[in-house]
Amino acid sequence: MKILVTGGAGFIGSAVCRLAVAQGHQVVNVDVLTYAANPENVSMLSAPDYVFEKVDITDAEAISKVFEVHQPDSVLHLAAESHVDRSITGPRAFLDTNITGTFVLLQASRAYADKLSAERRDKFRFHHVSTDEVYGDLGPNDPAFSETTPYEPSSPYSASKAASDHLVRAWHRTFGLPVVITNCSNNYGPYQYPEKLIPVVILKALKEEAIPVYGSGDNIRDWLYVDDHAEALLTVLQKGKIGRTYNIGGNNERSNLELVETICKLMDAREDTKMSNHGSLISFVEDRAGHDRRYAVDATRIEEELNWTPKISWNEGFEKTVEWYLNNREWWEPLLSK
Questions:
Q1: Is 133 a catalytic residue?
Q2: For 98, which DSSP code?
Q3: Is 255 a member of any domain?
Q4: Quick one: which of 161, 175, 238, 277 has the fewest CB in 10 Å?
C-alpha cells in the first residue's frame, strides 16, 4: 500500500520508512526537517517506492495538497516534538506541532477519506503514534500501564501527546474516521538524535567526558529497540482493530543508572576505545523538574491480538547501538558541531 508517513526523517519515522519500503510498500514522507530530523536517515530510499515532501503538518493547505497529489492508502502519524527537557524550556512548539499539527492531519484525512470510493475508504487507516508518558508514572511495585490506564501526563510534552490522543479518538467517534493508536515505551537504536540519553552516554564515554545522570539514576524506563517498534507500527496499521489502542513495549525495564552502566561496560570491552573504566565518568546532576519515576508497559494486547513481540534483546540491542554510533561518526559529528 501507499503510506503517508509524517516525521519520516526523524529517528522512529525513518526506521518506519526504511522497513515499509523493504516490505514492498510505497512511502510518502512528510517532514518539515526540524533540528531532530535528518535527510541522511532516509538517503538510501528513492523513487518510485519513496517520495519526500518538505511540509509543515500545521500548514492545512499544504497538507491537503499532499493528500490530493499522492492519494495515500493510509496515514502513519509520527511527526512530533518529543524531547521532555525542551518541552520544559519551550513548550509552545509542542502545542503547535503535537496538538495543532494532529488536528490539521485529522481534518485533512477526514476530508480525503470522505471522497474515496467505498472500497478504498474501507481500507483507509489513520494510525496515530503516541507515548507511554501520557499515563504519568508508576511506583516501584505498581502494575504496568495498560491501554485502560487513566491519563495523567507530567510534562508539557506528555500533556501535548495526551491531547492529541484525545483528538484522534474524538475524530473516530464523532466523524467515523478509521483510526488506531499506539503508545510506545522509550525507543533506542541507530539514527537517534544526540540529545537523547543513550547517544549522549555513548558519545560522552567516547570523548571521555562526564556522563550526566539525573538525580540518583533510579528512574526506571522500559526500552524498545527502534526496528522492533517500526515492525509493530506497520503490524498495527495493517491488522489493528479500528478504534483500538495498542501499547508497544520492549519488556526491558531498567533504571537509568543501570542503563548507563551497561553502556559503559560495553565501551570498556572494546579495543577501539582508550579507557578501561568508563563508569568513572558517571556524574550525578540535579534532577529534572517533574521527572517521572517509572514507566512500564503491558503489551499483552498486541501480543495476543496481533501476534507481535519484540525480537531484539537488551544485550543485543545495546551492542548494536554502540557499534552503530562508533562506526558512523560522519552522521553524528555534524550534528554535534551545530
A1: yes
A2: I
A3: no
A4: 277
Catalytic residue among 31, 56, 133, 228: 133
Backbone angles phi, psi at 203, to 5 degrees: -75, -35
The enclosing domain of 59 has a CATH number of 3.40.50.720
Residue 142 appears among annotated catalytic residues: no
Q: Would you give per-residue pLDDT tens digits along the chain (338 residues)?
A: 999 999 999 999 999 999 999 999 999 999 999 999 999 999 999 999 999 999 999 999 999 999 999 999 999 999 999 999 899 999 999 999 999 999 999 999 999 999 999 999 999 999 999 999 999 999 999 999 999 999 999 999 999 999 999 999 999 999 999 999 999 999 999 999 999 999 999 999 999 999 999 999 999 999 999 999 999 999 999 999 999 999 999 999 999 999 999 999 999 999 888 889 999 999 999 998 889 899 999 999 999 999 999 999 999 999 999 999 999 999 999 998 87
Choice among 157, 193, 246, 295 that is catalytic: 157
Phi then psi for residue 44, to 5 deg, are -80, -5
Could you identify the residue written with the cell 565518568?
A: 281
Residue with cell 519520516: 8
- 334: in domain: no
The reported pTM is: 0.96
Please state the domain count of the chain. Answer: 1
Give residue 166's domain range.
Answer: 2-188+226-250+292-311
Grid cell, residue 44, equals 538510501
148 Cβ contact list (under 8 Å, min separation 6): none
Does residue 227 carry a catalytic annotation?
no
Residue 101 placed within a domain: yes
How many other C-beta atoms can be found within 10 angstroms of the C-beta atom of residue 170? 13
Give, as one character, the DSSP assignment of residue 97.
Answer: I
- Among 31, 53, 81, 132, which one carries the catalytic annotation? 132
Q: Is residue 75 part of a domain?
A: yes
